[in-house]
Amino acid sequence: MQKYVLCALALIAVAAAAPQQPAEQHPVYVLKQESDVGPHGYTFDFETSDGTARQEQGTLKQVSEDHQALEIKGSYKYVAPDGVVYAVTFTADEHGFQPQEHVEHPNQ
Q1: Each residue of 31-60: pLDDT tens digit?
Q2: Under the phi-then-psi rule, with left for phi > 0, alpha for psi from -120 to 50, and beta for the rest, what region is 20?
Q3: By three-state DSSP, how is residue 32 classified?
Q4: Which 3 state secondary structure label does DSSP give 86?
Q5: CB neighbours (10 Å) of residue 58?
Q6: How far is the CA of 70 from the CAs of 45, 57, 100, 105, 107, in angstroms?
Q7: Confidence (pTM)
Q8: Across the chain, what does the average pLDDT equal?
Q9: Phi-psi region of 14 (alpha: psi -120 to 50; beta: other; left: phi over 0)
Q10: Is the distance from CB of 56 to CB of 37 less than 8 angstroms?
């Protein structure tokens, strides 16, 4: 009897852990995608039909006499399921990752 209860609980746990799909899913399309990579840096830019976008550029920078590093500047944004738009601009360099977040509430 305990085996049956244990098996039933295991099946319930597996069913509860299964990914839940929203009632309506729309396909997401790439609207824009560009990139350029060179020996002294790179840039890329993309945007999708669900409001997601990212832009980034990395430039080779002389940090000290003996060391070079990439200095990266960029931004990304996405729309949460509740319609709130999250946008982040950032710099990443010898001082670390420095993000700045902006939240837009479209219904307010």
Answers
A1: 999 999 998 899 999 999 999 999 999 998
A2: beta
A3: strand
A4: strand
A5: 19
A6: 18, 9, 19, 34, 39
A7: 0.68
A8: 84
A9: alpha
A10: no
Could you give the CA distance from residue 54 to residue 56 in angstroms, rounded to a whole number?
A: 7
Q: Each residue of 76-88: b (16+ CB within 10 Å) or e?
A: bbeeeeeeeeeee
- Assigned token pair, 104: 């837009």
Calculate the alpha carbon distances from 82 to 34, 97, 107 in Å.
29, 28, 10
Question: Is the Cβ–Cβ distance between 70 and 60 less than 8 Å?
Answer: yes
| Cα–Cα distance measured from residue 61 to residue 66, given in angstroms and rounded to the nearest whole number | 11
Please name the helix (run of DSSP H) or strand (run of DSSP E) that holds residue 107, with its range, or none.
Answer: none
Structure tokens at 69: 């590093």
Residue 78 identity (one-letter amino acid):
Y
